[in-house]
């Protein structure tokens, strides 16, 4: 995978002080989804993303990474995350070839799997799939964040002041 696949945005160009990260995990380990969930939760929490958005991002990460581990031959799964104060973004790239035409379809009620992208559709405010520079799939989900933790600082109740 090209190191410039997800370049760090230049400071001050798109959003005020964006937080950004990327990490690669084994694409063949059953532990990879758990490690990815933990890394995403830790990063987003450290960046001050509200818990509700962190929970959604963690679930999205779990689905995307699990899909990569189970349904591709990728030796490596790359997770990229970002937060610009308004939107938390999480994406997963792998060597899969399902990028074109990927859609969320509900699975039959008796199916044991097949609900991952449908869940992404429900949890994300926007998601998309594109072909990664290595020819694999890159699925990215965005979660709009209405408040940062700083806005939830303890304030006196209006009737008490």
From TrEMBL:
Iron-sulfur keyword on record: no
Keyword line: ATP-binding, Kinase, Nucleotide-binding, Serine/threonine-protein kinase, Transferase
Keyword DNA repair found: no
GO MF annotation terms: ATP binding; protein serine/threonine kinase activity
Domain of life where this protein originates: Bacteria
Gene3D superfamilies, alphabetized: Histidine kinase-like ATPase, C-terminal domain
Occurrences of domain Histidine kinase/HSP90-like ATPase (ranges): 34-135
Pfam families with a match to the protein in the record: HATPase_c_2
InterPro entries reported in the protein's UniProt record: Anti-sigma-factor_SerPK, HATPase_C_sf, HATPase_dom
Protein name: ATP-binding protein
């Amino acid at each position: 995978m090209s190191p410039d696949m997800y370049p760090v945005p230049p400071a001050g160009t798109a959003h005020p002080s964006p937080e950004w990260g990327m990490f690669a995990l084994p694409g063949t380990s059953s532990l990879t989804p758990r490690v990815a969930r933990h890394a995403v939760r830790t990063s987003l929490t450290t960046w001050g993303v509200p818990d509700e958005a962190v929970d959604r991002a963690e679930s999205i990460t779990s689905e995307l990474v699990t899909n990569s581990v189970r349904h591709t031959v990728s030796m490596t799964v790359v997770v990229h995350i970002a937060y610009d104060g308004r939107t938390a973004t999480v994406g997963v790239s792998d060597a899969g070839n399902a990028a074109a035409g990927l859609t969320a379809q509900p699975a039959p009620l008796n199916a044991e799997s097949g609900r991952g992208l449908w869940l992404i559709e429900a949890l994300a405010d926007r998601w998309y799939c594109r072909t990664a520079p290595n020819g694999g799939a890159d699925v990215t989900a965005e979660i709009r964040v209405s408040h940062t933790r700083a806005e939830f600082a303890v304030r006196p109740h209006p009737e008490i002041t």
